[in-house]
Amino acid sequence: MVILMIFTLIPxxxxxxxxxxxxxxxxxxxxxxYYKLNNKEITLSEHRFNYDETNKTYSLQISDTxxxxxxxxxxxxxxxxxxxxxxxxxxxxxxxxxxxxxxxxTIVGAQLRQLATSYGEVGKSIxxxxxxxxxxxxxxxxxxxxxxxxxxxxxxxxxxNQFGLNSFTGKLEDGTRLFMSPTFEPSNDAMSLYDYxxxxxxxxxxxYLTLSPKKYIADDGNNTGNGLxxxxxxxxxxxxxxxxxxxxxxxxxxxxxxxxxxxSGKILIPFATTYSGSKVSGTxxxxxxxxxxxxxxxxxxxxxxxxxxxxDKNDELAALSVEAESPVDGGILxxxxxxxxxxIKKATNAEYKPDTSVATQxxxxxxxxxxxxxxxxxxxxxxxxxxxxxxAITAPKIASIKxxxxxxxxxxxxxxxxxxxTYKVTWSDTYMTEALPDVKWYGKDISEGxxxxxxxxxEGKVLSQDGASISCLFTIKGKDAGIKYExxxxxxxxxxxxxxSAFATTTSNRITVQYTSYKDIIALKxxxxxxxPYKISSIDDLKQIKTLVENGYSLQGLHFALxxxxxxPSDWKPIGCLKKESSKEDPxxxxxxxxxxxxxxxxKDASNKVHKVTVxxxxxxxxxxxxxxxxxxxxxYGEQIDGYGLVDKYFVDYGTDGKYGTxxxxxxxxxxxxxxxxxxxxxxxxxxxxxxxxxxxxxxNCTVEPDVEIGYDGTQSNIGSFAGxxxxxxxxxxxxxxxxxxxxxxxxxxxxxxxxxxCNITNSEFYGTVSASGQLAGGILGSGYRxxxxxxxxxxxxxxxxxxxxxxxxxxxGGIFGGEPVCENCQDNGQGIISDNxxxxxxxxxxxNGTVGNIIGLLKSVNxxxxxxxNYYLADSNEYSGIGxxxxxxxxxxxxxxxxDYEFNADKVCISATAKxxxxxxxxxxxxxxxxxxxxxxxxxxxxxxxxVPVPYKIDLIDGYKxxxxxxxxxxxxxxxxxxxxxxxxxxxxxxxxxxLSGFDSKSVGYKNITVSYKSAENSFKVLVIAPQPKxxxxxxxxxxxxxxxxxxxxxxxxxxxxxTWIPKTSFTITENQTVxxxxxxxxxxxxxxxxxxxxxxxxxxxxxxxELSEFDNGTNSGWMYTLNGTHPLLGVxxxxxxxxxxxxxxxxxxxxxEEGSDKWNTPVEETKNVTTTGASGSATTTAPTEVKVSGTTxxxxxxKENAAEMVKQATENKSAEIVLRVSAADTKNAEMxxxxxxxxxxxxxxxxxxxxxxxxxxxxxxxxEKEILSQAVSEGNGSTITLEVIGVKKPTAxxxxxxxxxxxxxxxxxxxxNKVISLFNKGQATVKVEIPARLKDKKxxxxxxxxxxxxxxxxxxxxxxxxxxxxEFTTPHFSxxxxxxxxxxxxxxxxPQTDVKALAxxxxxxxxxxxxxxxxxxVTVSLDKQDKAIIKELKDxxxxxxYRFYRSTKKAAGYKAAVxxxxxxxxxxxxxxxxxxxxxxxxxxxxxxxxxxxxxALKQCKYATxxxxxxx
Length: 1513
Description:
This protein is mainly β. The chain contains 13 helices and 123 strands. A hairpin with a 4-residue loop joins strand 4 (49-52) and strand 5 (57-63).
């Protein structure tokens, strides 16, 4: 907010009686607030700029976008005042000496930085004082602090207002616009212009107001630390007359004037914007509209008659005419004609002759204004429609033809090589012609001796449309060697049916291609055809192919076949390379800088023998870069392959021109390839890497044999038997491998590679083991998409698959699928299916509280676009349910578009099955009856398996589909034809009647993703929906930039409000069919700013005043982004279409994770960034997250300012007894030193504002500092930081080992305040808890302090058990070097630990499980988690007898009666009443050596099982 304040000072006679400072003087008569609009002063009304005489305070409502404001201060009579000051927060920020006579002071925003703000808080007040008085200047006094002898203050309180209007217009019943003064502009809010006067003709009873409120990102006033507490307010509405208003359509409201007319006849319509967010709601900006009825509007005496006029093109029509008169004397009439709602230039007479030179439909009307006393009052005539039919349609134009990205010329192409042609078609006569021109491509053989007859080749692909212009692509399929071919296209526009049969055709210039033979450059046997492939018999033959590819020959369409097994040499470099070496982050330049292999590589010879390629140890695979390639019938072996097993580079490939819009090629099709027994691969078995989601991979009928190790070093993430990061389709594949890795580890695939793009696994089997040291492990698929910016990501699909064996990871482990870690609300364009799968192995989480499911580990959310059904798992193998964890089930009340309208029951879609049902065909029957199943399950020995019946896996559209539609047009499927490929290699043609198409929506303009499916086969294509007659509209654009400062210095973000303005907010007129990209380019061109947008959809850099600012210039999270109406969209600039009034803010950011919406972008699943408090007031625990940076052997731990402030706030409000800072082992990466750094001011707040001790949990040990120690650190310190170092000494010194023993576990603790080390505590003690290492677990453990002279001091302590782990806890009044030791080894006495049996029993949470027996009895068993099992073992080790008491009740929460007490953990209930539902609980009881009951679990701790009795008496 920038405020311009003008003080007009009128001198008066007034002075103080004495020389002392006094506020008794009266100098100010009044203050006026005003704006200048169109060189005219507009004074704010009294109720806007209200004066409270008692408090001498003026109140003014202003907008958060206020840009200019003026104040006029009038002084009383004659005055001796000689100085004026502006005071903010008791500081004089501006002082001005007053001269005699009238004086004007101008104060610009730069001089009042204290008032400037980008966004104010909702309801925030900004106060400042205007002081006028007398000053006697002394020599020692400066101009920065004026001392007055007498003065008078007036306070001005500015209330910052948000949620103004984007637009405000009105109409009368007949459609005439409502005359308003002043005319509304969005900038009016910035000048506090909230009062409007509307004038209507006498007799008007109704007006229609169109009120479009802004949708803001606003601060709701609940700040949580530094910066603003941002929130998107989606629910912004309108109240009229104090009541919530309902529009009659869109943003238009009907107003009955009698409802707002008072007794005096005054008509006042008060209205306001309203807002509601998750934390706060209220009224935004208030407006007043006064309606005055005047008989001043022109009266039309001759009107248009509303007819439809039909004529032919170039016919001469009679002029349209209107007549009117002024109802008052002196009125001046003026005329303005309109065409389709837009003014016609120079059409300002009472007559207008319509233009008929273009075949179109046009609506005409005239607006007549009557100017009375300088004010113009409008009236709108009726309208007429003129339809001009074409007699001879103007032929379209074909231009901008480019061949393979270059100019039009005769070409020489190698046989089979395709040619890409791009071109534009433009046309006129748009109204009476069909939707788009009909563009057909033809060709003819002009080789010597050829017939030269033309043949139809097909239609081009429409890439985009801008009005009556389309950009297109046509791919010319390659021909055989020796052929010379001529190509051209014909564009035809046709008249609509009502205009007759007129049409016009244009023929393009011709393209001539001479196809040459590969025989001239390939010295291999064969012809390169499928029937006679080029034959590869030796490594030299293979090297010849490699050389050809690296010289720019893609070998597209050529067939190659192995004739012998081949061993790759140790110096082998895979096939495919970069055109030129590049240091760019994207060296492939989206495909422009790549020489890929695009042929068909077959490992099978003519005798049908399949050959093997052996990769040398520690060397790379066969292929590097591939594009539209096929690899089939091949065996691979490598003792230790250093990379991926088959294709080493899966990359972002937009084709030879590197442009996404002209089409993205498939990467590769892999069929019948086997990774042989004994192979080891560093990364995934076949392929992986960072590619576009459109670079589809197909893997079919492939095998990874037993005794294959995938990920042999165990450190790779996103790794699977066949693929790592993957977008594509895997069908009918099987693996027996051992797969090892860190995160996202899958039996078949590691993870979905890109958000947009398929990840479908169908009819595949895994019989190996999966082991992940981190999270997200799955028997089929490790993880869905887990990138940083796609909370609405399409989800993965796993269908009709089988997995056995052991699947384990730290957390988020699933027998079939590790899970979807980031998808918060799957949209219609990304539907996924997890269905008809079987799991009969074991699952395990290495983390004590890890998330595990027999089918799915984790789902971030579930909504209607995620089909989960008919999945079965063997219940006897473990105690886990089908889905480990679902964070959010989205209902229709949460989201009407994507929510589910039924109760989601995980147990009904991921179903527990017994060994018997798995083996007796029961589950087979259920699977084959499923609607989504491939119905190819048969009974195996112990569980269902797949039959050998081929299944469809690939679908290719070959003809009959449109790519551009008009709004409201229906999807045309009548001519669609697709090829469907089955897993046995057979192909069938399928018509529209057998295909399923989904995802089409023509309600609005934009790109739509259409999914085409046939049984299990699926594909997709994009269509563009446009407006047939696009309306013009106004949008707003702002550009904020930054300096190039690297990672140093302050972080600059839009959210922080500290970016530089490169283009101020500017309005642009565009059409409905235009995108953010169009506005961006128009804005930058107008301001002579250049940019780089190589992909066409993402801006990489902008150059402003010779400064090029690119992504990553200011850190790894820096780059260019944009907001649309305050929100960062998920679409790129070329995909985001616009609506009237949209506001685009294009901006640089140093850290995108700190921008609006970043809370909905991905952070790793294991991280929790929220401060939480649990427990009752007075004994609560507040826990705050930490951030860790590891350098060498030191992990430095910090707490963000926001979290530190929230931590103190929650601990204060909840009277917490403890604040806990958690540091995970995954973050510290086994660092020897964990160093926590807290700002001294934060620790001081903990001491002064809370009652809490501070606990720091680290992998090296947990340290609790009592409040007295924290106070000492604050008071004795000499710096801004307090540091705690927890050092787990990995290599004790010889002296330490000698003193504490060989088995000693040494730790060092250091507390610093600034540079001062605090060793001895004045008051209070520190409690230290250290995990007992394996070498001491069977020993008597003691804790000792190791002195400087290496003497030992034994410390009081005890062994405690937490879950399956044991710790030693001790207290100390000082910090130094400590050790856990073997007491017997160093000669210390240790008391036998006393087991607190009651405390242990209180921790138990036994779960009852029930199942029917063969005799219809109910068998109840006890299920114990890891902690329960460890406690039971500890009780038994301490000499206690553990028994289980089984209870039964007919009520869930009461009435339980004991049935039996047993040492065994199961019980069979043999009696009951048929049809009665029984609830069962199991209690754990501990008895001493005398048989006395000493502890038991409370029944409320025990979780029940339920079963309905079905056995008759």
